[in-house]
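Quick start: read one record
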Amino acid sequence: MGTRQWAICYNFRRCFIIETTKYNVSKDIAKRTYNGICFDSLTEMRYYIQIVLPGLASGEITECELQKDYILQEKFIRNGKTVQPIKYVADFYLRFKDGSEQIIDVKGLADSTAKLKRKLFWKLYPNLDYVWVSYSAKDGGFVDYDHLQSLRRDRKRQSKNNQKETT
């Protein structure tokens, strides 16, 4: 049994504490449920509503599968004990009208496990277009995760340079 985690939320000058998962996601699943689908995060739900649904409606996206499994390492037996497989669960599998496919993972901040699984995925599925996206209002909505990290580093560097010039 794991330890319980809590987050402090601020809303209209009130402070309240909510229970969260280990990924800092609210346990209030009603907030991240849309059309009967419970998403792992609000950002993932936003991606579905703003990108996937309009793409399906226009015909640009012909197929969407949520939470599709990919095997990164098969299970095996070691010293008489079964070692479970390493799986990656994609947020979205999309097929487009031109026949191309894209695997989308909506990221807030990537941890070391996610980075390792991404490398394994690239190695095992080199022909699949595997993309991490993040949401940034400052940068126009959903953008490529690595590009967003680069933009944020550049802004931080620029801010430090501006502070040095003013002092």
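Residues 1-18 have pLDDT under 50 and may be disordered.
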